[in-house]
């Protein structure tokens, strides 16, 4: 089970700011705790509708995360890769393909194909698809390598199954 935070106060990170677009102080918000939804990210409008308090996530046009990340685990990424019989190391996704109502995703991607625990060859021009809730439930391993390259980050993870299309 995974734990996810949004933290607008992390020193030196891209999404760090003292206040959101509405002047509400940013904070660290526990979103998922071991797979259980604990909090919604809210601006003042969403908070009022949900009878909650703003979490300091107003972007001016809606609700946006600050520094949104999956909590790292204890497994080295090398061990995750070596545990794969066949699989894909997803390096990057391209475009936007998330249905916020259903959680269905479909994104262009590229990465590295793994066979028998070893990187076999690079892959590009592929599409990954699935349901975000199911993907989160299918996480089998979480790496210890959290690194922030954007305001949405996470460590290496191993997902039981994901639909991949392309050649």
UniProtKB/TrEMBL annotation:
One of its GO terms (cellular component) is cytosol. GO terms for biological process: proteolysis. Residues 2-166 form the Metalloprotease TldD/E C-terminal domain. Pfam families: PmbA_TldD_3rd. One of its GO terms (molecular function) is metallopeptidase activity. Coiled coil: none annotated. InterPro entries: Metalloprtase-TldD/E_C (IPR045569), PmbA (IPR047657), TldD/PmbA_sf (IPR036059). This is Metalloprotease TldD/E C-terminal domain-containing protein.
